Amino acid sequence: MDTRLPIDARASGLMTLLCLIWGLQQVALKGYGDDISPLLQIGLRSGIAALLVALVMRWQRIGFSREPWRPGLLAAALFASEYLLVGQALRYTTASHTVVFLYTAPIFAALGLHLRLPAERLSRLQWVGVAMAFGGVALAFLGPDAAPGSGAASLAGDAMALAGGACWGATTVTIRLSRLSTAPPAATLLWQLLGAFVVLVPAAWLLGESSIRPGVQTWLALGFQALIVSFASFLAWFWLLRHYLASRLGIFSFMTPVFGVVFGALLLHEPLSARFVAGAVLMFAGILVVSLHRVLAGLGARVLRA
């Protein structure tokens, strides 16, 4: 019997705070990019957070099982690829664009699960949502005023953020289809953090993005990314998953790109074209249709009976 709770005021407040933090992370990565590159920030934060997660696991006597090492390595590689793409995207496009295109991940995950699990076959309503989401991507991405500056570099940044979303979706599919789905969440997180640290720190050096401008702002930025984003927020997320219904929690995650766009505009003064905003709205409407198709189908049935 599932003893997890429906969403209450405590869960709602904590999820709103987590979405705010996750929406702010891309803006902070770009905002402090002159002091320490986004790629190096992500690599170092992952290493610090991995150490802290390992200490928590030792304290709670959670074993880091080596049994699912193949899917663990695949999840680590996909996670590292996602953030390698994000780190590079932030060099060429805005944080607002990066967070919006990154959050196409649920669509890629739904398509991957549709191909691999009979129980996850997409309904006709969900296919409508998929079409809406990709229509929104096309509107935001391909329009003449879609990218800031309308240059090839910013379009390349948007494309890398979109590819990062695909990697995130593939990570979800990997975890769902493997023994990682029954492993302790902290162990799965540790695989991903170690992968990002091992790949991204050398990548930053190879790409000439390893310089650090020492200063209070630099260390505060790195501390926020490591302690708040990669450690505390994910532990809080796993605590919520243990105590509350995951399907209800997932709905809140759609606030994250909204916060990202707002923070990008307010803190970094990033421009937002009407075409991009319209495309983002259409895209997330499609994702909501895919995620909430049962609720929407039930509402439609009730309306027809009324």
Task: State the gist of this model.
The protein is 77% helix and 0% strand. The chain is built from 13 helices and no strands.
Write the layout of secondary structure elements.
Elements (H helix, E strand, L loop, with lengths): L8 H23 L6 H22 L9 H24 L2 H8 L2 H12 L7 H19 L9 H26 L7 H22 L9 H28 L2 H7 L2 H13 L6 H18 L1 H13 L1
Helix pairs in contact: 1-4, 1-9, 1-11, 2-3, 2-8, 2-9, 3-7, 3-8, 4-7, 4-11, 5-7, 6-12, 8-9
State the total count of DSSP E strands: 0
The parts where pLDDT drops under 50 for at least 5 residues are none
Q: What sort of overall outline do the alpha carbons produce when their principal axes are compared?
A: globular
- What percentage of the residues does DSSP assign to strands (E)? under 5%
The residue fraction in helices comes out at over 70%
Mean pLDDT score: 85
- Quote the distance from N terminus to C terminus: 34 Å
Number of helices: 13
How are helices and strands ordered from N to C?
A: HHHHHHHHHHHHH
The major beta sheet can be summarized as:
none
